[in-house]
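Example 3.2
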Amino acid sequence: MTSASESPGVSAYTTQEAARLLGLAVRSVQLMVDRGELQAWKTPGGHRRIDPASVAAWQARQQGTLPAAAGPRGTAEAVPRALRILLIEDSVHYQNLIGLLVRRALPEAEFQVASDGIVGLAQVGQWQPDLLIVDLLLPGIDGAALIASLRSQPMFGALRLVVVTSLEEAERASFALALEGLPVVHKTALVARLPDLLAREARAVMASRA
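Structure, written as tokens:
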């Protein structure tokens, strides 16, 4: 990943330039601007321009190099990287619902969405989330195949997984191997079950960092 600090004198980035610098999809950068994670404005012609300082600050946070307040002996301490949560879900309704539940349960977490399995799998590699919430039935590549692919790669060994689905338990029999040992939440129970589950998974991630 190229550092934004390597481009002195740049007054603003286009969305495409910011996406290249951050190693993300253009849509992800657009969502980050919408959420206020990156500072941006629009030109008179309607083109979005992104503040280089906010790009550099975002990079520093992800790399764990953003300095915190000085410690008791005046030494700077690195700020731990925020919890990253990626949702792979093709339904806009459930994207919105789960996004709302994530923001309520874990307001400090960073949250991204992928709308199909292939894009989601690429985003896992690029963004390296701590927690993946994945729908079982997805376009492109279904959730079971995606989970099997992740489990076969040692680099994703620390990734926490939560499965959401509209399938009843009897209908999940063909996915039993992929789902083994994973928490599964039926979509009708998201509001009741997901917040506590997110909190539990977040604690497990933080414990693994200690």
